[in-house]
Structures are given as C-alpha cells and as structure tokens.
C-alpha cells in the first residue's frame, strides 16, 4: 500500500537513479493497454477519456499500444491546458503519428457516442488520478456520469476518477469501474471496490525505495504560512568533559531548520558553549558533568521541546550514564541518542521513541552485529532495531537506517568524513528533522543530508574537511535542485 505522497517521493528517487517519469509513463500506458486487450478484442470500439494531467498522459501512451482497435481519444480541455510536459509530449506524439484525437471543452458537447451514434465497447477512464483535489469539476463531472450510465466495460487508470487516492473516498461523483490498473503498489481501499484491480510493475527500481534520495526531501517543503516553532524546538543535553560536541549538534540542528535550539550543559562549560555561538540558548545545571540529581531538571526542560538529543560530549562517567538511564526511563517523547549515552539503551525500559546513531564500534558495544557487505549489514541492523524496539542509524560508507520494519540506506558521504565531530553534526540534524517528521524518515534524511553536505565540501576543497565545514552546507544539502 502506498500513499500519493510516498509515491511522489519514490517517483523522484527513481528519476535520480536514471529512470525518469516519462519512462514510467511509458510503462503505465503499456500496462493499461494490456488490461484493455484482456477485456476487448482487436477491432472493438475503445474510447479513452483523458484529463489534462499525467493520468491522461498514461492514456495517450496506451493509445499507441492499441492501434488495432477502433479508437477515440478524447481530451477534456484544450491541448494548451495539458499541465505537464510529459503528458503534452505524449499528446503531440499521437498527432505526429496521425492517431485521431478529439477535444471537449464544454460539458454540453460531451458524449460517449461517436459520430456514427454507437457507444463504445470499452471506456478507459483517465481523467483524474493521484492529482485530484476535491469533487470533479466540469467537464469531468458530466463525463463521470456518462461513463457510469453507459453499458461499456470501464477500465480506470490508477484510481477511479473522482476518488481520492489516499483516502479512497469521493468528494463528489466518481467513476464506478469494472477494472482498475494501478501502478507500482496498491492504493488505499482499491480492494473495497467491486472491480478487478491490477497492480502493474512500471519498472521503478527497488533502490528508489531503499536508497535515500532527493524525493525524501519533499516532506520538508515549508508552508508559506509557517509560525515560529512549527519547525521544531530541540534540546541538546551534552557537554562536560567536552564543549565542542554539544555545540556542533546544536548548530547543526539550527542549520537543519529547527526554530529554537537549547543546550543543557554543566555550569563548568556553559560560558564556553555560549561563546561559540550567539544563536544558541544555553541552560546550565550545577557541576561539571551530568549526574542523577539533575534528571528532574532535564526532564522538565525536555517536556518543553519536540526532541531531545542526548549524548554529545557527555562523557562516560558512571554517574552520567546512570543519569541518562534514569532520564530515558521516565521519558515518553522523542530522543536522539548518540556517543557514550548509546551503551545505556539496551538496558533501559522506556516508552520514549529513540533514534540511536552509533557507528559500527558503538553498535557492537550495544550488542549489535555488523558485516562488511551492506546488504548483510542491513539485515543485521533491521533485526537488532526490531529487538531494541528503537530506530537505528548505523553510520558507515553506506549508512543503514531501520526501525525493524522499514530499512533505508544512505549512500552519500565520503572518506573525508571520518574526521571528529561529523557524528555530532549528524545527531543534531537528526534531532531537528525528528521534531517535524516521523523518526525513521528523519534519520534517513539526516544521514543523506549530512553525507551530501560532506560531498559538497570535498568537491569544492578536497579532503581535510572539518566538522564545522558541514554546517553551512546543510541547508543546500536539504534542497532538491530538481531533475526536470
Ligand atoms: N509514479 C507514478 O505514480 C506515476 C503516475 N503516473 C500517472 O500520473 C497520475 C498523476 O498525475 P498528475 O498530473 O499528478 O495528476 P492527475 O492527472 O491525477 O490530475 C491533474 C489534473 O487534473 C486537474 N484537477 C485536479 N482536481 C480536479 C477536479 N476536482 N476536477 C477537475 N480537474 C481537476 C488538475 O488541474 C490537473 O490538470 C497518476 O494517477 C498516474 O496515473 C504517470 O504515469 C507516471 C508514473
Ligand atoms: K483515473
């Protein structure tokens, strides 16, 4: 089952892997033609009722695969209003090949009867697909009613026109088909219809779902009406033995788009952390390391934030690890756990949603296994994430992200990133993204963006990058320049 948002992400990732949408449309149209051939013999009258988006585009392609039939290709609208380049190119291809087409701009002129007054044997419903919003307008609404009134067999492309692909519900009239040809994966509630549903493989490689790509950035587009706080408030709990690590995490969270980032750190380092960066808000607690007596205070602070990042520069003093365990046991929110704090996770009983960001050494210390081959490693990480009941982001040349069910691979990054501090940056980005998106997706995109930022630095300056170089590049790494 796939939603239209995820389909759009996968589609974009496929394009980034070299399989552009127009190529997918060719497969979609071919699949529609195959179903038509299964339901009507050559020579039968087939009318394709086409909308102005890519749903219509699929039918323009199908028409090229159905030349032995008595075809009518009807576009609802003027050709100039076709809304995508690829649909327009396929419309033009019909004209170039002298396959007859018609247009209908006025619902009063819409009729399924051809010039000879005969009704079609089969109608292809390609008016509205995943791009529908609200009830069908005219002339689509009239066409829906005419299609439902006709005796013809009806084959809907992707979803019945008028049905919302994500909810399976119709806001107004909707086509009642005999068959539906949908693409790549089943769509919500199609199986509830009294229709044969074919899920056609349109050649989207598995990698478009597995490898994190530019399509995964789509949900991070911002609403122009956003308010402060909509993009997350993040608390970094770190520092004591170190001051750079919590600062890097906090700066990275800001660069990844968080609205407010606070650092909770021991008094002994608070001034130093603040002096690194005026964008940060520092909340200090007494002493020179995190200890159990600070847990209540940290818990109160954490309750005011969307996510907490636990670990950067905290050190591994026994008292500190006890405090991390105490905190996590009482915490029910979302926390990113990194560095020394990771070793506490397997023993802790918590309702929190944890995103753990170990490198392979830290993973072993947590009780997890690793392997050289990334596919084997992905299986091991998936099993261990399921066992822990938390999200794992295991860092490596191929980052593996898994919640035990969904497993993603991040392939960005380069050997320059073995330098200290890049992990602190990654934890910060993860925390920021997890404050607005579900944690597995947040972790996947964080791994992708962090690696991409590193690739941008190395492309410009060569190796010798330092962690602070990554910070400026994170906003660019979160942006999709687009494929078309
Ligand atoms: N990877 C894939 O999933 C592929 C899917 N393909 C097909 O593309 C459509 C989705 O195409 P899209 O252009 O995004 O949208 P639609 O064609 O569904 O509709 C857009 C079109 O309709 C107008 N519109 C929207 N709402 C209404 C309304 N209520 N009344 C009238 N008109 C409306 C809007 O203005 C646009 O003009 C998907 O379903 C698949 O069939 C491709 O094959 C590529 C691979
Ligand atoms: K349709």
TrEMBL record:
Binding-site positions, K(+): 55, 125, 161
GO biological process: metabolite repair; nicotinamide nucleotide metabolic process
Species in which this protein is naturally found: Halorarum halophilum
Cofactor: Mg(2+); K(+)
Cofactor note: Binds 1 potassium ion per subunit.
InterPro entries xrefs: CARKD, Nnr, Ribokinase-like, YjeF_N_dom, YjeF_N_dom_sf
Residues noted as binding AMP in the record, renumbered to the chain: 423
Entry superkingdom: Archaea
Protein name (Swiss-Prot/TrEMBL): Bifunctional NAD(P)H-hydrate repair enzyme
CDD domains: YXKO-related (cd01171)
Annotated GO MF terms: ADP-dependent NAD(P)H-hydrate dehydratase activity; ATP binding; metal ion binding; NAD(P)HX epimerase activity
Record lineage: Archaea, Methanobacteriati, Methanobacteriota, Stenosarchaea group, Halobacteria
Record-annotated YjeF C-terminal domain positions: 210-481
Enzyme Commission number(s): 4.2.1.136, 5.1.99.6
Family: Belongs to the NnrE/AIBP family.
Reaction catalysed by this enzyme: (6R)-NADHX = (6S)-NADHX; (6R)-NADPHX = (6S)-NADPHX; (6S)-NADHX + ADP = AMP + phosphate + NADH + H(+); (6S)-NADPHX + ADP = AMP + phosphate + NADPH + H(+)
UniProt-annotated binding residues for (6S)-NADPHX: 54-58, 129-135, 158, 245, 313, 359, 424
Function: Catalyzes the epimerization of the S- and R-forms of NAD(P)HX, a damaged form of NAD(P)H that is a result of enzymatic or heat-dependent hydration. This is a prerequisite for the S-specific NAD(P)H-hydrate dehydratase to allow the repair of both epimers of NAD(P)HX. Bifunctional enzyme that catalyzes the epimerization of the S- and R-forms of NAD(P)HX and the dehydration of the S-form of NAD(P)HX at the expense of ADP, which is converted to AMP. This allows the repair of both epimers of NAD(P)HX, a damaged form of NAD(P)H that is a result of enzymatic or heat-dependent hydration.
HAMAP family the UniProt entry points to: NADHX_dehydratase, NADHX_epimerase
Subunit structure as annotated in this protein's UniProt entry: Homotetramer.
Keywords, comma-separated and alphabetical: ATP-binding, Isomerase, Lyase, Metal-binding, Multifunctional enzyme, NAD, NADP, Nucleotide-binding, Potassium
YjeF N-terminal domain ranges (all copies): 7-210
